[in-house]
Amino acid sequence: SATDSPVTLKILQNWVPRVSHYFDKEHYTYVGHRIVIQESIEHFGAVVWPGALALSQYLESNQEQFNLKDKKVLEIGAGTGLVSIVACILGAYVTATDLPEVLENLSYNISKNTQDTTMHKPEVRKLVWGESLNEDFPVSTYHYDFLLATDVVYHHAVLDALLATMVYFCKPGTVLLWANKFRFSTDYEFLEKVCNTFNATILAEFPESNVKLLKATVREN
Length: 221
Hints:
- By secondary structure, this protein is an alpha/beta fold.
- The chain has one domain: Rossmann fold.
- The chain has helices at residues 50-61, 82-89, 103-114, 133-136, 159-169, 185-197; strands spanning 7-8, 15-16, 24-30, 33-39, 72-76, 93-98, 123-126, 146-150, 175-181, 198-206, 211-218.
- The strands form two sheets. Strands 1-10-11-9-8-5-6-7 form an eight-stranded mixed β-sheet, with helices on both faces.
- Strand 5, helix 2 and strand 6 form a beta-alpha-beta unit.
- Helix 1 packs parallel to helix 2 (82-89).
- One of its GO terms (biological process) is methylation.
């Protein structure tokens, strides 16, 4: 129920850091699969942030509540692709999206970690928040069961476009799962906007990482 207080969790250190000068490969295990993520130091989106770990862990642990099997899942700001890979392992039809400069590394990680499986083949596409949504993802064709977003709030200039993108894809029947590290007043202001725009509840908090995980659905009148 809406009165449930969020569960308090820790982000499990289930990865083995590898040190190298340029590309770091991080090794994770989710849903019984070993996932190897190549990070790039050149782009914000090419590093695994704590919100991605939190949501991956939550999806793995709450498969009955959020059953992704054969569901259509869109990830915005997919970054390195970890969350999209986990959603794919959980049986979803996944579309992972991000800015053009991030897509090469994102595609590499997703194809490398999903190529040997019998899951639905994931798709990687360009999506710039708030831009050309009607042209690239027309409502008549695209409807998603889940919209996933992790660590998307860090850059103040694009928050209105981010919210508009969430609103665009969050149709009746869509569940938005958003995990983010909360550090700045702008983060909390955006949280307030999300709560004013959607039916929103905090599912989980990871206090030592300052991460909150929200579930949001469209307000139906």
